[in-house]
Each structure stands twice: as structure tokens, then as C-alpha cells.
């Protein structure tokens, strides 16, 4: 009986891993976490304020949103559509006693109009597809901060080059 329960658990886990891999391949946003130093730099450059609503599209385990909430008092909303990744995020949220919101859905269908700052670490194809949506929905003054890849159709207000010594990725900052 215990052996059956363990077998079922591993089969369900394997199925969720497979679903996560397929979702990542289809969405063009593979699950590659941002490193801590890059997150710290992105948050510093965002000039976040207490009570500000921030979005992380493809938020993974929510580490950026949790850190922003703890350090700056932001209201974090993260979109993720990979089942295993969002489960890890929910565990991370519990461990850190965070109030961030995870939305298990496709961010291409989300309404981005109330975001004051949006963080992106998506592949070039996903950012190309997302660019018109951001132009259409985001208000003037919205800040977009991208890890590694530029946002097509936008002129960056600041570009922070990759720093191998500090181990940070290239960061692009845009203001709508």
C-alpha cells in the first residue's frame, strides 16, 4: 500500500515535470532563474516605492517579488504557467511569509494596465510577442526592466552591461 502511494506520487510528479517542460517549450520562456546579484541590481535600478504594484511575467519561484516586498514594501503579482515552478513558488511564499500573488495563467492574457513596474526575463521571441501588448495596455510612466534580452519596439532609457566580475546579466530599463 505504501509502495503504491509512493509510485503514484512519483508518476504524478513526473507528469507535472513533463507538462512544465512542454509549457516552457511552447511559451518561449524556459525556466531559468535570475541570479541573486542580477535581481538585486534590477530592484535597485527600479527605484521601487512602498505600496507600488509590480509584475513579474514568468515569475518562476517568485524570488524577485518576495525580495521586492521585503526590501521595498511593494505589492507583487507574478504570472507563471509551469505547474512545478509555481508549486515551488508557493512553497517559497510560505517560507518567507509573503503576501505576493501568484497567478497560474498565461501572462499574454493578463491585463497589465495597473502595473507600475514590470520585470521580464523572457526569451527574445516571447518579448517580441509581448511588446505590442505592453505598448497597448501600460500607462505612461510604467517602468519595464528586462534581464538579458532587450524589449523590441522600445528605446531603453538605460542599459547596464553584463558584469562578469560582479556576476550580473545585462539589464535593460524602459519607461513608457
Describe the structure in your own words.
By secondary structure, this protein is of the alpha/beta class. It has a single domain (2-175), classed as Vaccinia Virus protein VP39 (Rossmann fold), CATH 3.40.50.150. 42% of the residues lie in helices and 18% in strands. It has helices at 2-27, 36-46, 63-72, 83-95, 124-137, and strands at residues 53-57, 75-80, 101-104, 117-120, 143-147, 158-160, 171-175. Helix 3 links the parallel strand 1 and strand 2. The mean pLDDT is 87.
| CATH level-two architecture | 3-Layer(aba) Sandwich
With strands numbered from the N-terminus, the spatial order across the biggest sheet is: 3-2-1-4-5-7-6
Total number of strands: 7
Number of helices: 5
Strand content: 15-25%
| Biggest sheet architecture | 7 strands, mixed
Name given to the CATH homologous superfamily: Vaccinia Virus protein VP39
Low-confidence stretches: none
Named CATH topology: Rossmann fold
Radius of gyration: 17 Å
Can you give the mean pLDDT? 87
**Total discrete domains:** 1
Question: What is the end-to-end distance?
Answer: 59 Å
The helix content is 40-55%
Descriptive tags:
176 residues; alpha/beta; Rossmann fold; seven-stranded mixed β-sheet; globular
Quick rundown:
The chain is α/β, with parallel strands linked by helices. It has helices at residues 2-27, 36-46, 63-72, 83-95, 124-137; strands at 53-57, 75-80, 101-104, 117-120, 143-147, 158-160, 171-175. 42% of the residues lie in helices and 18% in strands.
Question: What topology does this entry show?
Answer:
Layout: H1 2-27, H2 36-46, E1 53-57, H3 63-72, E2 75-80, H4 83-95, E3 101-104, E4 117-120, H5 124-137, E5 143-147, E6 158-160, E7 171-175
Parallel strand pairs: 1-2, 1-4, 2-3, 4-5
Antiparallel strand pairs: 5-7, 6-7
